[in-house]
Amino acid sequence: MIWIIVKKQLLVFWRNPQQLLLLLGLPIILIAILGASLGGLMEGGPVSIDAKVAFIEHGNEQTQIDQFLNEVENSKLPKDAITAINNSTEKMTPITILKEDILGSDELKNIIDLEIIKPREKANVLNNKEYAAVIEVPENFTYQTLKSIYLKKGTTGEIQVYKNEGNQLGSTIVTGILQEYQEQLSFSTFAGKQGITEEALQVDPNAIIGETVTINQKNPVTAKNYYAVGMAVMNVLFIASTIGSIAFLEKRRHVFNRVILADVSRWVYFIGIFISGTIVGFFHLSIVYGVSWVLFGLSWPNPLGFFVVTLGLAVSVGGLSVLLTAICFRLNSEMITNFFGSIIVTVFAFLGGSFFPIGDLSKAIQVVGNYTPNGAALTAYLAILRGDGISAVLDQFAFLIMFAAVLVTIAAISFPKRGQIV
Amino acid sequence: MLELIDLSKKFKQLYAVKNLNMFIEKGEIVGLLGPNGAGKSTAISMLSSLVDPTTGDVRFHNKSILKNPSPIRKIIGMVPQEIALYTDLSAEENLRFFGRIYRLKGAELKQKIDEILELIGLTDRRKDIVKKFSGGMKRRLNIGVALLHNPELIIMDEPTVGIDPQSRNYILETVKRLNEEKQMTVIYTSHYMEEVEFLCDRIYIMDQGNLIASGTKDEIKRILSAEKTIVIKADRLNDIFIESLRQDPTISSVTVEEKKVTIIVPKEINIFPAVLKLAEEAKLELNSVDIKTPTLEDVFLHLTGRALRD
Ligand SMILES: Nc1ncnc2c1ncn2[C@@H]1O[C@H](COP(=O)(O)OP(=O)(O)OP(=O)(O)O)[C@@H](O)[C@H]1O
Ligand SMILES: [Mg+2]
User: Fold this and answer.
1) What is the DSSP string of A301-331?
2) Which of B46, B66, B72, B86 to mutate to test the interface with A (most CBs of A within 10 A)?
């Protein structure tokens, strides 16, 4: 029965070519105009991050290693254990690994400019805005770490990172790397405690670097693509007001009464509206993106991620459709759909960044914008365009579904009761 | 079969329907008559389970429909006063959709659609979009949609408004035929007396939310047995004449239309001399003075002092 309602709704939609053309044509024209006029704005190669990073090392690593080996020699450990530890001395340089294999690797050389600083210059460096981050290795770090890994005594040392808030990207990268590194060290400790001493210091510099590089060297998003997505996520919202108007017309023309008199539950109708909104929203997005792909070369590196975001947004549009319908039925007026179509969509589009990346201006607006369906979808679409996987957009997907669920609930509460629809 | 008990509907301060009592037996055609705003459509919405009454009850086979409207919905075919159709869809698509929501499908639905299209004379326009139909064609489809599921009870709310006499006759004949051939029960709402006179076995007359008369055609006309209706025509009616008619104690009702005054007087009184005298005093030239055989229209006039239509 629901499907009968949906099918008819789609047919009515389809029978209004002007409306259809407007809904599809408007975003495509906007995409073309904005794309052409803003062509060069965000173009260019990967974002070049040239983060200057200071590295302060207290104490000497080799001295600490010697001290550690000395202690092992004089301990009551079994002979072969001592031999095993001695044999893996070359791997036992956590600071050198960090300094040379990780931060100094070829991959990170483009991003990070590492400077070794003497401890007494620490204060100067901390006050110097040029540095994106300052890494400080405490005294006895190596000694403590080795002891923790091999002798299961104490914990690994903690490397300190001072972030320069002014250089977010650089400092974020450095923090990310160190976090990953620290985690790997802790894991080694854990592994060591399980008795896998041979393999003890299992830091894999490539894993750490790989992770960092993919996060930060994503595909850049061009202005054209940005606005294509911005316009698509904004214009799909008009589907909701269109579905709402069609539904209200059914009430005004008394065809809704016929449906009720056929003993069809009003909830069947209600769900039918939700599903219609979702389906039309999904097709709308697919068509707008399809045309953008053909005409403007907007392509998606991760089709599945694209599908997930599109689905989430379409479900939100379904939620909006059914809420607008419920309010129209309740107030017996179409006013709300006009208000939504003219004012709310514009505000949503503005906050959600469809007109320009407003989130870059203010953190607060960025947060608010991400609570609009179009804003959340835009953020997610951009992540996909930059080359992120599905996991990067799950938050937004969850938000879109939740958003729809909340709207459907409000709609269900405000939908007029049986016998009250006059 | 169907009973309305002390049914009232209040919109804010206004009683659209007040303490309405009605019954409908299987197989009869019942007329519901009244001027604009009488409360006919509101009464129909309540008895068909679309709108809950403010007070009172509707009983279908002795069970209230308020808690469980399904039984009555299954047997009702509703022809609303408005054209309740999808104007962007074709006649056939409308019939198919409404047939589907009445759980018809496949060959049965197809056959039923053909049958209805034939009945309402739209077979060769079946593929056309309703928007392009004439008013009368829309009206006919509006009726056709209500007949898809072989309803036992068909409710028609002013189904002939705004259509030419030919289509109107066709509709009236069709209703009569459905009643005779299929024993369909009919509730027919109108403010055309002649339609109701032609179709209905029993009649309810409403005005301003109240039931003002009910019974068979003859019973209702007998209300007028003690009175007669006289129509006075004149090209230039003047206020002096009308005022003096109103002052006359033997005249119980004076209704003025353009070039025409209708008065009601007791049967035994010969009012002609008085009328002629008043006309002379008012310097009015009369065209004619006639006695009319009473119609339901006159009953309404008698009961309310107003014409049924403006
Ligand atoms: N939904 C509503 N809200 C408020 N008032 C209403 C509503 N529906 C009807 N009314 C009022 O109730 C009264 C009766 O209306 P109704 O439509 O039942 O009359 P009707 O007899 O069908 O008239 P008509 O011959 O013009 O169709 C009118 O005064 C109307 O204004
Ligand atoms: Mg009416």
Assistant:
1) S-HHHHHHHHHHHHHHHHHHHHHHHHHHHHH
2) B86
